[in-house]
């Protein structure tokens, strides 16, 4: 038997080491590696609810955005969705549409756009920042829920952009007869930038421009992600309408959406604002009271010129010369609700005062100050 010396084994081990190093270096040289420098890595975001469940939120989650011209039924829509145990919309944030308006002004100003580019605030940086801001507000201004929803009426003027920064989001555009919307704005003294509350003609023109913008945005987003919901049909046929809406949103059916008034200010229910004018209306069940209040309230010269003043009425399927209009026949469920409300008006007045707890001294705070245009960028 031949004895193998110590030097032999040293030679073998050194050879294996050299070959191994050679193979590693050869493979590394084949790899393509680009040094992009240090990178910021976002933390995973989540909220722990009172039920001790972890609710994760991120840009790819299926957010729901509800919008439309103010006084078009957006509050009713969000209240009905808020009654669903899996959905949380909450009160208007007010800051999200203002941020979107500021961004719009940046884009319109060539000087401001150049300044942002020079500062390294490229599109992807701004998009990421705006999305993060909106997401934090939506996620944390109310209770956690599997499906989060935002209702700031004028956000749908930026539906295309929101659909880009939130790729799984869906949109509900509330549509209402512009004559009813404008009458409600004027009679309830809802302040909207650019709307002259002393002129039906001017307000109808402003309504026409606003709904045209949102209608175009909804079409740009596409029917698979943006659904137009007619306020009149939601009120006349709530069960049929809500079935379609929940199916569109991929939310399972729950009868609670037909009884939102039972969930007012309850945990996990419908949170109402003391300073939104529409709050006193949604404490009632779905009813017919507001459908035709505008009839015989608009000046005759405006009624005569309606097709010219508000051409979007016809585009949306309304007869601009019908006065009163025929929106259709209500379900028996809605008729019963309306009869109950008319039979005991004091009961509902008391409920409004109790649930909203409005103090007389705070009456001047009531209002919906909507800015249709944001502040111009500084020169």
From TrEMBL:
The reaction(s) this protein catalyses: L-tyrosyl-[protein] + 3'-phosphoadenylyl sulfate = O-sulfo-L-tyrosine-[protein] + adenosine 3',5'-bisphosphate + H(+)
EC number(s) from the headed UniProt entry: 2.8.2.20
UniProtKB keywords: Disulfide bond, Glycoprotein, Golgi apparatus, Membrane, Signal-anchor, Transferase, Transmembrane, Transmembrane helix
InterPro entries referenced in this protein's UniProt entry, alphabetically: P-loop_NTPase, TPST-like
One term of GO molecular function: protein-tyrosine sulfotransferase activity
Lineage top rank: taxon: Eukaryota
Enzyme class (EC, first level): transferase
Chief site of localization: Golgi
Entry's localization field: Golgi apparatus membrane
Pfam families given in the database record: Sulfotransfer_3 (PF13469)
Stretch list, region Disordered: 358-379
Alphabetical list of Gene3D superfamilies matching this protein: P-loop containing nucleotide triphosphate hydrolases
Membrane topology category: Single-pass type II membrane protein
Cellular component, GO, one term: Golgi membrane
Membrane-spanning parts: 7-25
Similarity comment: Belongs to the protein sulfotransferase family.
Its biological purpose: Catalyzes the O-sulfation of tyrosine residues within acidic motifs of polypeptides, using 3'-phosphoadenylyl sulfate (PAPS) as cosubstrate.
Name recorded for this polypeptide: Protein-tyrosine sulfotransferase
Protein source organism: Menopon gallinae
Biological classification of the source: Eukaryota, Metazoa, Ecdysozoa, Arthropoda, Hexapoda
